[in-house]
């Protein structure tokens, strides 16, 4: 197997050496033209006269001026709904082979996002590029002969009319390249088990049959799977079951909040690589070890635009105003949050994916996810993004020597005014409540000037309740579905928060 590992590693290094370096700005210009050319005869392309855009002096500028922004509800109501009525060539040629079901982190009803064969090809190519980028990480040859555990949603997809439906992780896993199937675990039989608890229990029972070198999946669900394997085999850490585990590819959410609790399950350090795979496409991946930022996939099936994340451009529901200005990759700046807008080979056009990002390296087109537009806490001017909330949690972990993998909060009105009401998921945060409240409030005031100003006005302070992390996982299981792309809401509105607090009452 070591010989095989050396061959694979050598092939990856050779491909990396032979692959020309991508110029992100030029690549994006080509992607836009290809998208417009391919879709110009669709209903959408004819409606917005893509042919005219292509012939304009500045296609990117004309495209931005002519096409409005779309969130899911808008593009689905006006365009994608036609696909479910049997129409073809709606926003992309022909009909999609798949629909990705996604409730995201803010809704209860599943979205049905088209996934075309072109998008699957783009995702596969991005995956190959990510594997190729492993040559930048100092991994031993034997790593490349180990098995990879990909924990996502069920690959037993739902047949609907002329297409299949499921979560994007299940769709991509059901389309893995034939040459990878020998390395892929837990294998097709287990991956088709729809019930998440049963699937994880089966993984735990078979775990010692596999030589796992890499893990891939959303941190919260990977953690629960690892705990199940550890408990089933009555060991202290996962490396006593999978001694050759060396890489974890995180995705779906920022890994930072899970770092401490995740590392507690390991027997030795491993390489953590961030990825950004959404229901709408493979957006970015970490390509080098010097940073935990991710490189946008600029030469695939996605064209990116960026709207400065400023209060005057953001509506109360997290959407953006019609007159919000967008810029292209060549004009972005460092230290500025942007709302991410995408147009794709699945027929999403100027689509608000709901995430905010920040550039860490413009020349390399490297980014970090900073939050969600709907999770931006701006009650009485506090202006807190998820990125800033995460930093507050890291501060609490360091201050109290604990792990807080999950949290949620709401700007809730009480008789004496607004408070940021936090629920922290922790096993051993045993400090008294006043100490925790003080540490959290003081950090937010010192780290964010807008929060400090809000505290001098209508924001009275913070309230904190500590519960077990399992309460968060049970909430997700009760409201959505365990595993897959399911993520916890970091910020809730008061109506949803009332449901959350009622749920917590039943668990404590």
Structure description:
Mean pLDDT is 85; it is low at 1-15. With 508 residues, this protein is an alpha/beta fold. It is globular and about 65 Å long. The chain has two domains: 1-373, Rossmann fold, CATH 3.40.50.12780; 377-505, GMP Synthetase, Chain A, domain 3, CATH 3.30.300. The protein has helices at residues 2-18, 24-39, 43-47, 50-55, 59-66, 72-78, 117-133, 168-173, 188-191, 196-206, 219-232, 259-263, 386-400, 433-447, 449-455, 469-479, 494-505, and strands at 98-102, 111-115, 147-150, 158-160, 163-166, 184-185, 212-217, 247-250, 271-278, 281-285, 294-296, 302-308, 337-344, 351-361, 366-372, 406-414, 417-425, 459-467. The relative contact order is 0.11. The strands form three sheets. It has an eleven-stranded mixed beta sheet, sandwiched between helices. A hairpin with a 2-residue loop joins strand 9 (271-278) and strand 10 (281-285). The protein has 17 helices and 18 strands. It is 35% helix and 21% strand.
